[in-house]
Amino acid sequence: METRIENDHNETIVGILVEKETYPKKLVLIAHGEFGDKNSLYQPLLAEQLPYSTFRFDFRGHGDSHGQTGYANMAEDVQDLHTVADYFENRGYDIMAVIAHSRGSTAGLKYATTCDKPLSHYVNIAGRYIMNDYGIHMHSPEVQEALNRQTKQNGKTFVIKVTAADLEKIKQWDSSHVSRMPKSTCVLTCHGLKDT
Predict the structure, then answer these.
(1) Is residue 17 helix, strand or coil?
(2) How far apart are the C-alpha atoms of 145 and 165, rounded to whole Å?
(3) Which residues pair with 101 in a beta bridge?
(4) Nearest Cα to 128, choosing from 191, 181, 63, 39?
(5) Exposed / middle / buried, residue 94 (Cβ in 10 Å: 0-12, 13-18, 19+)
(6) pLDDT score recorded for residue 122
(7) 190 contact partners, CB below 8 Å, separation of at least 6
(8) Which residues contact 35 (CB under 8 A, 6 or more apart)?
(9) pLDDT tens for residues 157-194?
(10) Is the pLDDT of residue 150 over 70?
């Protein structure tokens, strides 16, 4: 079921709620990576296969959600996760887990260390910890390709221009908060052999 949630900036976050009968009402949030959306990669299949209710959504500026798209919007993604979680908690759901990919996982780890009620589970799929590796940011083929990257928002294709300021913002992201992950949160990290 499509669900629309307004954030504190009057932007609409759009997602798909797949409900499963559980008591209490447990919910898994599924977050996409950079240039992705709620229907990217494995998200729709995962939402159907999990035995719990799921909500997969587009971060602001991605897919069907409103707002400004930005290459280095991790802080905004964290805010979106809090907004989505608050929305469902106010409707009686227990946010039991977050499953997130790439940049969505970078933001999701920050959410997991700052949410009021510790998560039972966190699944980090290819989320980076060290963000300030100059060589990775300036010389990798992915970044060079991404300097003019096409993506879709609200059904329209457009180009995201990645600036030196965006790369600097990413390099400044501090991931040390993961050391404050609650001991009660089980964390699974998945990386491929070619992930950086």
Answers:
(1) strand
(2) 17
(3) 125
(4) 191
(5) middle
(6) 98
(7) 123, 124, 125, 126
(8) 62, 146, 149, 151, 160
(9) 767 777 778 878 888 888 899 999 999 999 999 987 77
(10) no
Residue 183 structure tokens: 């001991």
**Per-residue confidence band for 141, with pLDDT thresholds at 50, 70 and 90:** low
Q: Is pLDDT of 135 > 60? A: no
Cβ-count burial of 141 within 10 angstroms (0-12 exposed, 13-18 middle, 19+ buried)? Answer: exposed
How many angstroms separate the first and last alpha carbons of the chain?
A: 35
CA distances from 147 to 58, 67, 137, 151, 158 (A): 22, 20, 11, 12, 13
Structure confidence at residue 34 (pLDDT): 82
Q: What's the token pair of residue 125?
A: 């799929």
Q: How would residue 114 be classed by pLDDT, with cut points 50, 70 and 90?
A: very high
Kindly list the structural domains of the chain, giving each domain's residue range(s) and its CATH number in brackets, ordered by start. 2-131+175-190 (3.40.50.1820)
Read off the pTM: 0.87
Six token digits for residue 78: 């964290």
Sign of CA dihedral 127, 128, 129, 131: negative
Tokens 């700052």 belong to residue: 114
User: What is the C-alpha to C-alpha distance for residues 143 and 97, in angstroms, rounded to an integer?
Assistant: 30
